[in-house]
Amino acid sequence: MDRDLKVLLIEDDTVECRNIIKAADIKDGIRLIGVTNSAEKATQYITDGLPDAIVLGIELSEESDKCIAFMQKLRDMNLDEFPYILVTAKNEDAATHDTARKMGADFIMTKQQENYSADNVIDFLSSVKSVILGKRRDIHAEALSPEDKADIKNKLLRRIHTELDLIGVSPKVVGRSYLVDGILRIMECPEPNFSRKIAAHFGKSVPSVERAMQTAITGAWKNNSRQEIAKYYTAHINPEKGIPTVTEFIYFYASKVKNNW
User: Is the CATH number of domain 146-259 1.20.1740.10?
Assistant: First the structure.
């Protein structure tokens, strides 16, 4: 398979996170779909992002969750396909490692071992990439049932809504619904006249739909700090305008969500 290995990093050490992110960025064929130290956030990433592999630190700081407790939560999710689990352990306790393996850990690296590094973590995943992907069903390559298609659409919708929440697009403004519809349409088939399709879908005029979408975007930029928005909206913005156009916004998020799917 020639697609990227989608990896979720669950780690409470900020230095370790930075190092693994840096190592993944320069490794062809490896793509991080999320980084978190929250068990709750991790389960959402797993549900929406369908990672092929998880790099899991032995402890999670939030709510005193431990690696084993999270792995039990992962088992309880009844996933169609269980991701490959690479545990990076903070200790060398054999009993803990044995329990982690029984709970589903595929490989354990001890952070105290002499040759341990973030580069080695990513290099190892790269070396077993073909094996991992060979065992997984590629949802993009198979004929999907109507139920599968509906499930995928619902997951995409949740991801889009999460992205809009992160930059403060209010769920109370009507333009948000139009933006979501537009992002989905562009993900399926990029087209220059998407506003016309959105307007027809909602039974509105094209100018009213475009105004509502721009108002929703403008509201997010007006009511939230540019520094916070810049963490999530990373596309170039014309400095004279200060905010993205509707077309720029929709195409950015269509690409962002699709590439992290």
Answer: no
Q: Which residues pair with 32 in a beta bridge?
A: 7
13-52 core/surface letters (b: 16 or more CB in 10 A; e: else): beebbebbeebbeebeebbbbbbbbbbeebbebbebbbbb
Tell me if 20 sits within 8 A of 119, measured CB to CB.
Answer: no
- Each domain of the chain, given as residue ranges in start order, spans 5-134, 146-259
| Cα 220 to Cα 216: distance, rounded to the nearest angstrom | 7
- According to CATH, the topology of domain 5-134 is Rossmann fold (3.40.50)
- What's the CA gap between 41 and 12, in Å, rounded? 13
Whether the per-residue pLDDT at 222 is higher than 60: the answer is: yes
Pairing mode of beta strands 107-110, 5-10: unpaired
Average pLDDT rounded to a whole number, residues 78-94: 81
* Amino acid at residue number 64: S
Query: Tokens in use for 68?
Result: 């084993």
pLDDT in tens, 164-213: 999 999 999 999 999 999 999 998 877 778 999 999 999 999 999 999 99
For residues 107 and 83, is the Cβ–Cβ distance under 8 A?
no
